[in-house]
Amino acid sequence: MNDLDKIDRALLAALQTDGRMSNAKLAETVGLSETPCARRLRRLENDGYIERYRAELSRRALGLGVYAFVYVRFAVHDKNQANRFEREIQAIPRILSCHNVSGTADYVLQVVAHDLEDYGTFMRDQLRGLPGVTAVESALSLREVKSPGALPLA
């Protein structure tokens, strides 16, 4: 982060707001001409500050009305079992994220489903059958107050 100057931070901030911004608009936004802007952008990508570009889709428009935080616990903490669990969840699209955490749970998942019945079926038929899973607790989101947004650049 110390390698970033004011213009680099401005580039990253602008792209977090609009990842489809053209190079010309981006250059104008940060006060550069197009060639130096493109060069800086390429460096930021190559240095790993920008991992990828993607579209943010609407859960509502896609009919995914249930958003749950799922706390998964293991009875036995075996490295091979944990590795199998982590590999298998990679292939389940409705699991948006998975974090190995400290505390009473071993993992916290973010999961989407069409409705409560769909969520219940997923829990019964998929999640509870994953390697190592002995207990599952869900917290359903009632309302999103703040969505994942731009990373702080200060």
From TrEMBL:
Coiled coil: none
GO biological process: regulation of DNA-templated transcription; response to amino acid
GO MF entry, a single one: sequence-specific DNA binding
Sequence ranges assigned to domain HTH asnC-type in this UniProt record: 4-65
CDD domains: HTH_ARSR (cd00090)
Superkingdom of the source species: Bacteria
GO CC terms in record: cytosol
Annotated keywords: DNA-binding, Transcription, Transcription regulation
Entry keyword annotation includes NADP: no
Name by which UniProt lists this protein: DNA-binding transcriptional activator DecR
Species lineage: Bacteria, Pseudomonadati, Pseudomonadota, Betaproteobacteria, Burkholderiales
